[in-house]
Amino acid sequence: MKQPIIVAIDGFSSSGKSTMARRLAAKTGYRYIDSGAMYRAVALYALEHGMIDDNGQPLADALIAALPHIEIDFVPQADGSQHTMLNGQDVEAEIRRLRVSNVVSPVSAIAQVRKALVSMQKAMGNNRGIVMDGRDIGTVVFPDAELKIFVCSSPETRAQRRLKEMIEKGAAVTYEDVLANIVNRDHIDSTRAESPLRRADDAVDLDNSNMTIAQQDEWLMQQFENALNK
């Protein structure tokens, strides 16, 4: 049996990387880790504990002090999906709302938050055989991952996808609001001082603007097999 590998999928907000990662994990029997959900859980904690100011900025000192009291885990569901747990509570639906999306990038930019979650993520990969997606998986969390993918597509394409997803979940949002959120998150994620979003030098690029999910799956599985057989 071949040695299990680590697959790191990075990319911009709403680029479809989570869907790709989740489906690859299901096909290969690997464990899927949604690092973005972990940052969203911290952002939700900050919202619910009065740690976001009137301008949508986190109260860094208060949030840093609370980090030891924040526990995040993932629980598999009967349909093959997984839900994010925050201190024992299922918060999967809540962390996907726009109010969390609007504050997750500034929360994620706090160095101590990133360090705490990177430590959790590294521990999750101790036994290898995982697929993890995020912003800094191939550059910071698992720089030695055997397969690194960097996903990109235009902000407009990503906004359309995100809008459709949110409407299907019953959210009352507009395209303009979603696009503005994505553009703002792109800027924060790419320019933050701590672990900014960037392409790893040895990553394989994927522009999935005009690809179906089936085409993405086929492409990614080929990359996985290539990496596994090296």
Helix content range:
40-55%
Strand order of the largest sheet: 2-6-1-7-8
Q: What's the rounded overall pLDDT mean?
A: 92
Number of helices: 9
Structural class: alpha/beta
Following the backbone from N to C, one meets helices and strands in this order, namely EHEHHEEEHHEHEHHEH
> Could you tell me the radius of gyration in angstroms?
17 Å
> How far do the termini sit from each other?
14 Å
Mass-distribution shape? globular
Number of strands: 8
Q: Can you describe what's shown?
A:
The structure is a single chain. This protein is globular. A hairpin with a 5-residue loop joins strand 3 (72-76) and strand 4. The longest helix has 17 residues, at 175-191. Strands 2-6-1-7-8 form a five-stranded parallel β-sheet. A three-stranded antiparallel β-sheet has the order 3-4-5, covered by helices on one side. Helix 1 crosses helix 9 (213-228) and helix 7 packs across helix 8. By secondary structure, the chain is an alpha/beta fold. It starts with 5 loop residues before the first strand and ends with a helix. It is built from nine helices and eight strands.
